[in-house]
Amino acid sequence: MDCPRIPQHVDDPGQFFFWEVDEAMPVIAGFALGAIFNSLLLFTLCGILISRFVAKLKEGKHRGFMLHFLYWHGTPGFRLKEMPDTWVRAFCE
Q: Cβ of 27: how many Cβ atoms within 10 Å?
């Protein structure tokens, strides 16, 4: 009986070309906004700078760092249903 090959990279974060998805999103958003506002170069460069900032922020941290960072800083539109709000510091039973 042949043993199936176990995938090595199942749990790796998603990739978009050579960037991880959370690093590529600012560049893609900057490109899209630049196309909308007819200032492609400026917005794309801003997206690249934001992407570099995100990469430096994630450097040396665990894989779920951005998820925790977005949750802790209360990013609008980002809510985990099973987790309490970030501003709640004391809990009662």
A: 22
Q: Is residue 2 part of a domain?
A: no
User: Does 65 reside within a domain?
Assistant: yes
* Count of domains forming the chain: 1
Please check whether residue 54 lies inside any domain of the structure.
Answer: yes
19: which strand partners? Answer: 16
Residues 6+ apart with CB under 8 A from 86: 71, 72, 73, 74
Q: What is the CA radius of gyration of the chain?
A: 18
Segments forming the whole domain that contains residue 37: 15-72
- Note if the pTM is more than 0.85: no
Q: How confident is the model at residue 55 (pLDDT cuts 50, 70, 90)?
A: confident
Among the listed residues 2, 6, 22, the one whose alpha carbon sits nearest the alpha carbon of residue 14: 22
**Distance of alpha carbon 78 from alpha carbon 25, whole angstroms:** 15
Q: Name the one residue in this structure whose structure tokens are 């510091």.
A: 89
